[in-house]
User: Fold these one by one.
Assistant:
Number 1:
Amino acid sequence: MYDPPFELYVGDYAFAYSHEFPNELLALFTEQDRRPPSQLEARETEILEFTKRDPLNPIGDEANKDKPEAEQADHFDSDVIEADPSEPVTEAVGPEDAIAEEVDPEDLDAEESHLESAYEVSVSVMRERLEILGFSNALWEEELQDYVKTKIEHGIRQVEHQGEGTPERRRAERRLRILQRSSLQRWMKKLLVLLDRSLNQNYSAEDTLMHAMYDKHAPHEPIFTRELIHLRGALEVLRDDETVSLDFSTAVYEDTVSANEPLTETARYRLLRPVREFDPVLVLTEGRTDAKIISESFKRMKPEIAHLFSCMDHETFKAEGGHSALVSLARSLAAARISNRIIFLFDNDTAGHEGYGRFQKVRFPKHYRGLILPYLSTAEAYPTIGPTGEAPANVNGCACGIELYCGPKALTKDDGKPCLGTR
């Protein structure tokens, strides 16, 4: 048996060994599933028990354990030597002291971290988690049924190849009846045993079903399309109070991972990262006009990357607009742990800068980015109207909405005069 860094057990059966980071399997656990620190206590108990044994007769305690207390021999009495009163009294060194000198506390700490490197939950909990993820009974039953069907068809051909009435034919017929009458749960149970033996390099098949599934040239014959579908089926043949454990002690021992590293969170990040990379970047704006103009601008100006961005649909779902609503939306999405990459785009006006300032005060996730429409050089002397009449003014930061970024043609009236802003 080899010693891989990651080992998954269902009940007492080895289910999966891996030298690589098993993302899908680790993602089934949480950091609260770490096995409790009981190994050091067990080690200390083992040392204490060892100290109670007679070093000259280590099996004596075993011989005495079933006898009444009065009949148990005291192995030290026969070797007692009376002390000479004239000799100075010295402190005796017993087996306990010898053991204490041999065991380094640092070694115990190292062993503790090595032995405790595992996640563990009950079968019932793991079964419920897989159900929520969509791995139902129907999935593994359907795939295993297809596999069983091929084995039965093979058994029928074996019967047909034997001569009528021969011992070989009768044996083949008996094997075929077993294949046909065995439930899917029995097939799964035998498959679990066979997998355990194959992973531990103890290749053996003891009955008809295991012989039907075992192939020495391909001991890990694929039956299920997903490992998690296989796991779901394996859990169905175990008791609820049995455990599912993923031991990564070897990975810690080899310094591949830290004993305290949150492997379950790392696994989820690795699984989701490819999806996030190819998901469109969401661009959320203050209003529907902003969203419509930005969306159409991408299609016309950068069609080669337009599919990598998606703007908020204000119209269909009657989404609330404005800088305050945008900040509130950012808070809500962060609270819901939405993992998409999102740009929150504020107008380059007074209200937009206020909203952006509020956004900056919140510690949002790194994949949430707040932006303001850029500084516009053509807005430095834009015609405006105010209390003193018409006059050019720099409207950056006070009145630059999305319309000012659409170019002079969009800002010119039918009479050729520019649309006036306010100051």
Number 2:
Amino acid sequence: MDRIREINSRQLTWLVSVMITAGGLMSLPKSLIEVASLDAWVSEIGGVLYGGMIAFVLYQLAMRFPGKNLFEIARELWGPVIGGLINGLMLLYLWTILLRDARVFTDFIITLLLPRTPSDIVLYLLIMLVIYYGRSSIEVTARVNDFVFPAFGFLLAALPLMLANELSFQRVEPMLGHGALPVIGSNFLTIGWFGDVIIAGCFLNTIRNAKVIYHSLRHAVVLSAALLSIILFMIISVLGSKIAGRILFNTYSLVEQIHITDFLDRMELLVFSVWIPAYILKTCFIFIAFMHGCTSFFQSRDHAPITRMSGWFLMLTTLLSFDSLSETFNFSNFGAIAIALVLHPLILVPLIIRAYRHKPKKKALEPPDEVHYGSRRKQPKQAGSLLRNMLHQRTLRSWRITSNALLGTAVALIIVGVLFGPMHSIVGTTCSLGFGFCLLFAVLTTHMERLTVVNEAFQRKMRRKKNKQSDGAA
């Protein structure tokens, strides 16, 4: 465990996406629908902007301190005393997230799936899995997530198709017809969940190229927002905003409505057999980040000796933290905003202010070979798809401009919709649908950003290797 563990850009993207999406499916939809009613499904743009801002700050830190994570950067910039205090705040933030996730998972299982099972047993099983994965490295969690997240994302994206016979567009009308305050409040509410992107800072040392980290996080944020928007739209269009606002786990009620032919009427068992592993991997990802922070105090990369003790302490504090399910929901959605807006500035602002005194490294470290899975070739084949060739010919700058334009257009459409939607329903409907299309296309453009920056870094590495070989031959 002495060597630096490395993951690739796709694995980082999927880990951050499952961290935001798997947790947000449980408690977030109910609170968003309570605040914004019919307009809850356009509430993710605030979280996207906030998550993108945190991703940019982490990019600046990674560019100036390559090969170091957030805890190591804090100690190098501020020393062992102030840097240790900043790291302590980061550990406090990670612990609150672990408490929230462990309790939400336990309440969900004993409320809907295993009502006769004591909550202590469910929590004990979760902690056992967390300790098992926590004793390994981030590589293990990332590789397991490579199997889980594609199935998880596919099931979420396929919900409109599986529920096509149940949804009604009349339940989501009038779109953006209730004024600006509900939409502003719901977008503000998503900050608490998308702020979890800061946890990726604990693994800045696992990818050597700062640009790869930045564009991977951008894609993860936009992808998570698109998946959550699809879920919220389906909840409202199938269950209705009034019913969905009263149900605690309305995502489970949504999946129960899936009826494919006469014999596939228990699809919730299939869906949640994929969601539960995704949620466990999300918790393991955060727990490993906490372990990295703990080892930073001992100047060691081996966190295995304290993993078991930390897991049992997590179980104890989870059992003592909340008295009821309503407290858990309030802390998960409303308390998360206060925690994020208080702790994030205290952690990131001192780092970024002092980091700007350090000039970025002129020669950035390139990603290793495993960063570029499936693309170990110097040039794409010209005989492939014409559309694919056209996409790969665009530069990173053009993809980034396109993504920013799409996100800016989505924000502008929401502003126009909340201003004129209450007076003209056609304006609200047009702006809402335009927002949805912009968000979906932004998933594609940010994905191409990530692929382009990885391809460019890989080709630079191949050119340097070729030059060294030619110099050696000469």
